[in-house]
Design a protein that fits this description.
Layout (H helix, E strand, L loop, with lengths): L5 E7 L3 H12 L6 E7 L6 H11 L3 E5 L6 H11 L4 E4 L5 E2 L3 H11 L3 E11 L5 E7 L3 H9 L11 E3 H6 L7 E3 L1 H11 L3 E13 L15 E2 L5 H9 L6 H15 L11 H9 L3 H14 L5 H8 L4 H11 L3 E4 L2
Amino acid sequence: MEKQLFTVVMSCYNSEKFLKSTLSSIIAQTYQNWELLAVDDTSDDSTYDILKEFAAKDSRIRLFRQKENKGLTYNLNLLVSYAKGDYIVRHDADDISLPERFEAMYEYVSNNKACSLIYSDYYIIDDEDNILCLSQPVRSYDSLVSAFSQGYNPIAHGSVVFKKEDVVKIGGYCESVIKGQDYDLYLRLILNKNKFSCLERPLYKQRVHGESINQGHFNKNTVNYKSLDREVYAKASLMAYHDGYKKQYNYYLDTAAMKNKNLNKVYPSGYSECLYALVGGKRKYIIKKAFFLIKTNPCFLKSYLLLLLSLIPFSGGKFLLTKRMPYFTLKKI
């Protein structure tokens, strides 16, 4: 019997720094029945050349190239529409899959065909591949629904595998949500009473770094859930099991879009990864990051806070992160 084909979908924008490592981690999978669909979203670096180099060596890699920037959400829907596999593997262009990831996912979906989405534990790594800590999202479905209802998203988007049929059935990713599109997708899957499961082992490495890029452009019709009042999404997700939820959900989404006035406001990154580094006991990393942020943006007060955080013991950093993300268990590696 032929093994299940997995379709890996990856949208790339100026991803040259980490792309080779990312592609190599996919090629190195112990489970080999996969295809990779990758789109270059008008990069102005060597991203497309790197993709072509790997595609020339492996026929399982199919490339697409946008003529104008479309953003992550649009590109994911495009790639899902071209997928030959029944299961879609998400992968970010700067992250790493552990060699056994696809194999573990295959074994699980083969015995749990009713499950629509599978996620896993994951490592948090920096731009030099150093592991900062281990993140273990909530396990039970009820806890996951509770997390979403409080405005939290404990799942690393790049770590998931989902049934193409089930996601297409609910309309795919919502293209008015260009940041937080995974959170929106999960809520609508819950609406449709789809099942989620967690593989309780690390299979993915999520990279946090100062050069992380959020794809896409903002406009007045765009929803960025991270900048919205969480109550908007909490109300929507709490209605997940009730009739008429979809209409109400869309109402909250539209209302949130109209009230969101700061979509173009961008803050220097570094705060969250330094909290992860605190959990991992990486004090030198924190100090280095703080001085870099102070140098590049001396008016950003959180840069100075990072220096103070470097004095907090391991338990203190873990406490701060746990308060912000109560649906994770974070462990020192």
